Amino acid sequence: MSAMPIAFIGHGSPMNAIEDNEFRREWQSLGRRLPRPKAILCISAHWETRGVYVSAGEQPETIHDFHGFPKALFDVRYRASGSPELARRVAELIDGTRVHLDAERGLDHGAWGVLQPMYPEADIPIVQLSLSGLQPGAWHYDLARDLAPLRDEGVLIVGSGNIVHNLRVFRFNDPTPKDWALRFDEEVAERIADGHHEGLLGYETLGPDALLSIPTPEHYLPLLYILALQREGETVSFFNASVMSSISMRSLVIGAP
Q1: Is the pLDDT of residue 188 over 70?
Q2: Domains and CATH numbers, the chain
């Protein structure tokens, strides 16, 4: 069995989970063309913790961790099961860091918002891994490398965030991309395409465009988990490569046939 591909999804607005738009259609297409996984491990921007946690419940609830959106979005229930077995396996693989099993944690919209379009039957178990919010990019990259065996065990690993995510200056009524957002999105894409991951770990050093694009790191860090799991010779394919105001929807899949 070949290694399972890995993907980073730029998730953007929670409404992308239910609207018929280009982003959701690409997520649907991705779910159809990837090999069917035995289980999914998702690293979402929307679960930050002190320390490292992994969801370990049998039936995770659908968390509606947002406000100000239509009732139709709050009505969504994604009834995928959890996998305590995979949660224990994740904890076993991560070396040198204590991993807490959280049997109460549900699926936040960074997870179900993209996985529901990909796997609408909700018939694949899902586990979430939290982001330890106090750690730098290189720490997350190194931790992610411990998860490499999961790719050979039929587990699809998905990072869900956004390369550029600055809601402070986002304009709903004007999607024209900010110049700095376009520049940073393209710089990150070039580094990924060239395999130059090291400079992306300390993104704070990449200049003013980076600081505007990543005012807080939680939407960027899931990307590093996916890059860390790229193997030699594996190709990167980008999709949804667009910037709306100050949010980049750029997504990528690595190792897909």
Answers
A1: yes
A2: 6-254 (3.40.830.10)
